[in-house]
Design goal:
about 425 residues, 5-stranded parallel sheet, alpha+beta
């Protein structure tokens, strides 16, 4: 706030001089609370009127006693002058000081005591009562300039608080929408896993956050066939989750012709998913890894195709493990890609594990071995190998859940899970 002055007087100004066009017109009157003790009041006489004249009558001095001043300190006060003589009763002074400190109001103390008193120790501005009114007015000018900056900061802080409240509201809305998105995504997952006369199945699905870039399906294709499917969209969050929904809708299982049907084989099914993804892409490329296996429960033969996904794991009883892989491109990248198939003969008691690559990040190798790829199996593979002694799919999933919980509790904050996790365990009966 600037004060109008005569030609011979310096304007009340902020440290950065404002251009004339920037000065708001008309200027409001500046209010100074003039607090006095009884003895000091008799000494100062007409000091408020003198200061008002020096300050070009743009400052209003409100004179109050020291005992009643506390209730007059509010946000409309631009400065406080406290005038106390050594003989004055200072009762009520604490209330005034608390009020000005709480509101960041500048204060000037006039006293007939030596200048090394309490006010100097507390870094308050102090002058002798005998000081020239022009010096007092000059100090008040500095206060008003400072107060301009404080008012601007208060205004900016108020604006920041409003902006923060708005952002918090938007964050809350986003969280609610993500929760809803997670619920919608779960609609694409099996609500309950089917049962089979020749097999048993269990599954684990853990999103890294509200939604997952992984999706899985376990389908009873007919009385003798079961389909196991996992897809892992590249990326995280909502874009990856939306892509998994497209994949889930685009996975064909049977082709019905009148009273007959044909089970669509894994390689053909992945080709259909690939065409669906390519048809829905515009200027961005969205792709995913996938694995699809169909098990004939009569012959115990599993036919499998893999699209850039981790190899399947076949546990032969409780003694050996076979990693089963076959080459194949990611889905959603190239048109006209053909996927190969692999047949695996299964036997009673064999378990099949299909999983996403999130386990690789859930169970990281020690730093000293990460640069040595030929130094044994990766840690996450060893964690899956630890399930070899467990014979039932539900127990295997429960054991892995416990291991993941232990890993989550023991990991450093920067080592928390950074990918979605999906695991299907199937047992041949």
């Amino acid at each position: 706030m600037l004060l109008e002055t005569s030609q011979n007087e310096s304007p009340i100004e902020s440290p950065t001089m404002l251009a004339q066009d920037d000065i708001p017109q008309p200027q409001p009157t500046i209010r100074v609370l003039f607090v006095t003790g009884e003895s000091a009041k008799s000494k100062l006489g007409a000091l408020p009127e003198t200061l008002a004249t020096i300050l070009n009558n743009r400052v209003h001095f409100e004179c109050v006693s020291i005992h009643a001043a506390g209730e007059h300190v509010n946000a409309n006060v631009h400065a406080v002058m406290i005038c106390l003589s050594r003989n004055d009763n200072s009762s009520g002074l604490a209330d005034v000081l608390d009020g000005v400190e709480m509101r960041n109001i500048p204060i000037l103390i006039l006293s007939d005591a030596p200048s090394t008193g309490t006010s100097m120790d507390l870094s308050w501005n102090s002058l002798s009562m005998d000081e020239s009114p022009h010096v007092m007015a000059a100090m008040l000018r500095g206060f008003f300039s400072r107060q301009l900056e404080i008012d601007a900061l208060r205004k900016a802080n108020h604006g920041a608080e409003i902006q923060t409240d708005r952002l918090l509201g938007e964050v809350t809305q986003m969280q609610d929408e993500l929760h809803l998105a997670g619920q919608v995504q779960r609609e694409f997952l099996p609500k309950t896993l089917p049962t089979f006369s020749g097999g048993a199945v269990a599954a684990l699905w853990r999103p890294m956050n509200y939604v997952s870039g992984d999706i899985y399906d376990v389908r009873r294709l007919d009385e003798h066939h079961v389909g196991l499917f996992i897809a892992d969209a590249v990326g995280h969050g909502v874009p990856a989750a939306l892509l998994t929904m497209v994949i889930a809708r685009g996975l064909p299982t049977k082709e019905i012709n009148g009273n007959t049907y044909r089970i669509i084989q894994p390689s053909e099914a992945l080709a259909c998913v690939n065409r669906e993804l390519l048809a829905r892409q515009s200027n961005t490329t969205r792709f995913a890894t996938a694995i699809y296996a169909i098990i004939d429960l009569r012959t115990r033969v599993m036919r499998m195709s893999i699209a850039g996904h981790p190899a399947a794991m076949v546990m032969r009883g409780t003694q050996s493990i076979e990693m089963v892989s076959c080459p194949g491109s990611l889905v959603g990248v190239f048109d006209g890609v053909q996927w190969s198939e692999k047949e695996i003969q299964l036997y009673p008691g064999d378990r099949i594990l299909l999983y996403s690559d999130g386990f690789e990040f859930a169970f990281l190798d020690p730093p000293e071995s990460q640069s040595s790829p030929h130094k044994g199996s990766p840690r996450y593979v060893n964690e899956l190998h630890a399930l070899l002694s467990i014979t039932e799919p539900a127990d295997m999933i429960a054991a892995m859940e416990r291991r993941l919980d232990q890993q989550l509790l023991s990991a450093n904050p920067q080592e928390k899970f950074t990918d979605d996790l999906t695991l299907i365990a199937f047992k041949v009966l």
